[in-house]
Amino acid sequence: MNRRKFLAVTGMGAASSSIPYSTLSRAEGENEIIEEEFFTPEKGTNIDTPAVWHGDDEDLVLVTAKESDELVVFDASDGEYRGSIGSEGTDLGEFQRPNEVFVIDDHALVVERDNRRIQVIRLPDRKPLGTFGADRLRKPYGCTVFRSYFGYELFVTDDYDAADASELDERVKHYRFMMTENGVDAHHVKTFGETEKPGALSEVETIYADPEYDRLVISDEQATAIKLYDLSGNFVSVGPTMFDDDPEGLDLYTDDDTEGYWVCTDQIDERSRFHVFDRASFDYQATFRGERTADTDGVWLTQREFGPFSEGAFFAVHADRSVSAFDWDDIEDVIEDD
């Protein structure tokens, strides 16, 4: 069972919070180095984003491979190769440039950039259940999913070409879906995006929802900043701006209903940095690097105890070729010592 099974709300908006600019100063000091637990073998071509699924007797990392049009599967406990899902094509069970995968319950949601759709794969049998979004999505990249009273809420970024800022009003699409006997029943809820600074979303990929705070956290790579929206699609404020390269993968560690940490990727070619911020205030907490992990796109954090990880693990894509694993215990030590 993945921690995201417990992320449930009964409506679309809990406590909202605006982040003041005064809390967003650049990090000072040294970056702590954490040794990776393992690296997966190099499988697939141009991998981008990992996601973890926990079953009764196995724990898997699924990773999108953009150029080989598949999901590559590894054992989350030791990184061993466990095969792949899908192949190039437009039919159900096939992909065209899968960019992101997001796991919730026993479902993997795959964002296909070039098929312009979301595809749902059931786990552990790897059966494709259906697709949605192709009638509206133009160049989808990242998604975030959580449970609600209505079933599942999904927000997907759409990084279509825009001639000027006035065309940025469709950067995020909100869908609501549920699983049925016939597959997936999905419908479009809303499309949104600011067209003026500072809220305009210039170049978008990663997005992550925190329903407890009525918050969407969105990486704007061109602005090298995090933008904060609410779940209704309203711009709230600019978040952290301390990135030296593209702000990429995001994930959330939850201590309880309201406390925890955001982990935000600074995609540096030589060696990626991972900045940690307070969940509620976005106050800076710490920065860490791996010994080798570089040029990271997507990340995934699981709080489940499994394999060698007593407090969960953090997975990061390394140089478009493999996935590295960090013990959350080691990351927490850095946060507490900072």
Query: Helicity range of the residues?
Result: under 10%
CATH topology of the domain at 3-8 and 30-252: Neuraminidase
Query: Structural class of the secondary structure composition?
Result: mainly beta
CATH homologous superfamily annotation of the domain at 3-8 and 30-252: TolB, C-terminal domain
Strand % is over 45%
Number of helices: 1
Overall number of strands: 25
User: Reading side by side through the largest sheet, how are the strands ordered?
Assistant: 1-22-21-20-19
Major sheet summary line: 5 strands, mixed
Short description:
This protein has 338 residues and is mainly beta.
Describe the structure.
This protein has 338 residues and is mainly beta. 3% of the residues lie in helices and 47% in strands. It is built from one helix and 25 strands. It has one helix spanning 328-337, and strands at 32-34, 38-39, 47-54, 59-65, 70-75, 81-85, 98-104, 107-112, 117-122, 127-132, 140-148, 151-158, 172-180, 183-192, 204-210, 215-220, 225-229, 235-238, 246-254, 260-267, 273-278, 284-290, 299-302, 313-318, 322-327. The strands form six sheets. A five-stranded mixed sheet has the order 1-22-21-20-19, with helices on one face. Strands 2-25-24-23 form a four-stranded antiparallel sheet. It has a four-stranded antiparallel sheet with strand order 3-4-5-6, with no helix packed on it. Strand 20 (260-267) and strand 21 form a beta hairpin.
